[in-house]
Amino acid sequence: MNKIVTQKSENLVCPVSKAMNLVKGRWVFPIVHTLMSGTKRFKELERSVEGINTRMLVKELKNLEATGVVTRRCYATVPPTVEYSLTAKGLAIEPILNEIERWAVKHL
User: Fold this and answer.
1) Is the peptide bond before 30 cis (omega within 30 degrees of 0)?
2) Number of domains into which the chain is organized
3) Inside any domain, residue 70
């Protein structure tokens, strides 16, 4: 019985709430915005996202990878090379970020 209630309540969740859960967090949009210009190595991301520390960047990248927004590619070099890029799902966020940026320039 509980499974039926859970499934019904999940279906009633607002799509906006689902989207906000996907992109929640202070650093998601700055990371995605940085990756919109193309694939970046970890250190490039760390330097590009102002104010983020290494631990938080690692955490956010893992979350973004788990949700299918970012893809991680690791190369067997010494030291290891790790690159991050947006997936199709991540690239679909670009128009939204552009609108937020336009709104911020106009109103903030």
Assistant:
1) no
2) 1
3) yes
Q: Which domain holds residue 55?
A: 26-107
DSSP 8-68: HHHHTS-HHHHHHHHS-SSSHHHHHHHHTT--EEHHHHHHHSTT--HHHHHHHHHHHHHTT
pLDDT tens digits, one per residue of 1-52: 445 544 555 566 788 888 777 777 889 999 999 999 999 999 999 999 999 9
The domain that holds 87 is classified in CATH as 1.10.10.10
Judged by DSSP in three states, 78 sits in coil
15: in domain: no
φ, ψ for residue 24 (rounded to 5)?
-70, 155
| pTM as predicted | 0.80
Q: How large is the C-alpha radius of gyration of the chain? A: 17
Is 3 within the bounds of a domain?
A: no
